[in-house]
Amino acid sequence: MIQELLDSSVLIGIATSGIRLATPYLYAAIGETFGQRSGVLNLGVEGIMLMGAFSGFWAVYVSGSLFFGVLAALLVGLLMGLGTAFINVTLKAEQGISGIGIFLFGLGLSELLFQQSFDSVVTVRGFPRVNIPVLSDIPVIGEVFFRHNVLVYVAFALVPIAWFVLNKTTLGLKIRAVGQNPQAADAMGISVARVRYFTVTLGGMLAAMAGASLSIALLNVFQQNMTAGQGFIAVALVYFGSWRPFGVMAGALLFSTVNALQLWVRTKGIDIPAEYASMAPYLLTILALVFASQRVDQPAALTKPFERGE
Amino acid sequence: MPILAVIAALLIGAVILLLMDADPIEAYKALYEGAFGTKNTFADTLIKATPLLLVGVGICISFRGGVVNIGGEGQMIVGGLAATALALANPDASAEFLVPACLAASFVAGAIWGGIAGVLKAYFNVNEILSTVMLNQIATYWMIYLMNNTLIDPDQLTAASRIPETDRLPRQSDLPRIGPWLDSLYEWLGLNGADSTRWAPTLLHIGIIVGVVFAILVWILLWRTTLGYRIRAVGKNPRAARYAGIRTKRYMVLSLLLSGGMAGLAGGVQVLGVRHRMSAEGGAIAFTGNAGFNGIVAALFGKLHPLGTIPASVLFGALLVGGNKLQRTVQVPSALTTVLISLVIIFVVSSDLWSRQRARRRVSSASAESAPASSAPPAAEMDRVG
């Protein structure tokens, strides 16, 4: 098995699918990073992903246009993000629980709409593979990095953008201030609520994109509960990445590569039972959390609603 | 307040129904009939309420102890697996041994699964929300593995279909049916007048009674014992609890341990009372029926009070059973009930703010009149901590 694994074509295959499979995690986890940096834990990512996956799929199916698919997903993500912000920021709900509510809402509504709209399993023509000129011809590297669909490239482009926004702009400074010390931020004239509405809504749109990247780019189908826990893992990746975009990306890649590896192991029918291989990413996440939590403290105001004058 | 949340959820549900060209009144009538229409449907409602109650009572412990246990699904699964394995290993044991032993095994298995998250939180600083979610997935794959290999029904191994499920458990492990008892009770009370239907043919098993008994026990534990007081003290204010000499980490682990144990018990009751075998067919959700999550909703709805969780579980059990009827009569997917339940949970947690603010206003107006007695814990309880 080790011999076979070291074969270059197998390694390239695993690395390539590792990159591809990281896509939904990246969208969802980068969006969640913004929310958590500002002090809001949105545990409902999974539900927003499902709604994004459905709406994107539906729009592509009806219109035949990928543009409308992305637009529909973003719009639904915007609405669900606003709703989440309203519940967590304005109504100051307990975030661990409201997130479960949002998850169940997305789970139920996407299934309801799916069963209402489609009688059988259908597929759509999703985002095609785009080979980047010149770069995709580089041996190995070209194959691994530059022969994917557009949503994969956008997902990876989000990482440096998120890093730049969080660390080099006034907006990022405000987000971090609100997450670290909302009282001080408030005293300096920053509207805590407005910043959190922005980050949570952005997180909702990116979560919906994460779902759409599954339904109209990676798999090109919709099934009930098709995200199967990926949204929850995305939340864990934010902790794993210590609330830093590049850390989150490292976590997403580690996770997706282990996933690609276990998929390969399964196709080979090797001694390791497939179910144990499937468990590996989750065990790895727990171990990763054990190590990650020793290193950095979370944003001080995470999960704490802001109350003026307390 | 929670009743308002249900009404609001039903109103939004009505809008969804209208958008789907279904008559909301007819739909809700079908839902009610489907849940409470006959003794048979009412029995179904109680059967569906049972795992919600057991999980929910556990959730009361963990949330009161300041830890968020969303690992009910995984804890149910390992509980079910433990009961299944023990029953299959003892095909000749007596019912008097097998039923309690299997239930105890399911409690212990769930407690271990919850306890892992507790240890990770207390000693390794790992957020329990995340670890319990991961443990849910791990339990799911473990169950699928066992159903396909170690525990698979030997007949299924050779069958062409090869359904991943165990053999039927020995009959002695079945939870006793309580229909006949209820019939005698009805007769004794003279309630059987015009209604000729009986409880006996229903599948109602002793699980609901187990649930109610545990709800009472946990209420006593949380509000009538030092142990429970300390669990709640850690949940209310961990720092103050530590200064008062409570070993907070141990109580965090204990909260998750007990909470997981209750969910494990729910899994055991599902196996012994309803399915009589474990199956991976239809995924983990076919076994748990989302009770690991819906139990949280029931507990919240019951204001995190074990006794309040009893009626709350019946309500949500009714929604689940009625949802199936809804699907059959008005052709609306039963996923609508998931949406309704999610709306209830969202409204309940959101309306927390208003109840909190009202409470604060009441406290401040009360303290203006008298001494601020309400904010400090009673002296007697403080003594017990010291």
Main beta sheet of chain A: strand number and arrangement? Answer: 2 strands, antiparallel
Radius of gyration of chain B: 22 Å
Count of β-strands of chain B? 0
| Total beta strands of chain A | 2
Estimated share of beta-strand residues of chain A? under 5%
As an assembly, this protein is heterodimer
Per DSSP, the total helix count of chain A is 13
- Taken from the alpha-carbon principal axes, the silhouette of chain A is globular
Helix content of chain A: over 70%
How many angstroms separate the termini of chain A?
61 Å
Count of all domains of chain B: 1
Helical content of chain B (DSSP H or I, runs of 4+) = over 70%
Alpha plus pi helix count of chain B: 17
CATH T-level fold name of chain B = ABC transporter involved in vitamin B12 uptake, BtuC
Task: Supply database-style keywords.
heterodimer, A: about 300 residues, mainly alpha, ABC transporter involved in vitamin B12 uptake, BtuC, two-stranded antiparallel sheet, 13 helices, B: about 375 residues, about 75% helix, globular
Report on the structure:
The complex is a heterodimer of chains A (310) and B (386). Chain A has 310 residues and is mostly helical. Chain A is built from 13 helices and two strands; from the N terminus they run αααααβαβααααααα. Chain A has one domain: Orthogonal Bundle (ABC transporter involved in vitamin B12 uptake, BtuC), CATH 1.10.3470. Chain A has a two-stranded antiparallel sheet. The longest helix of chain A is centred in the first third of the chain and has 30 residues. Chain A starts with a helix and ends in a 15-residue tail after the last helix. The model of chain A has no long low-confidence stretch (mean pLDDT 89). With 386 residues, chain B is an all-alpha fold. Chain B has a single domain, classed as Orthogonal Bundle (ABC transporter involved in vitamin B12 uptake, BtuC), CATH 1.10.3470. In chain B, helix 3 packs across helix 10, helix 3 packs across helix 15 and helix 4 crosses helix 14. Chain B is globular, with a radius of gyration of 22 Å. The two termini of chain B are 37 Å apart. Classes of the chains: A mainly alpha (310), B mainly alpha (386). At the A-B interface, helix 5, helix 11 and helix 13 of A face helix 6, helix 14 and helix 16 of B.
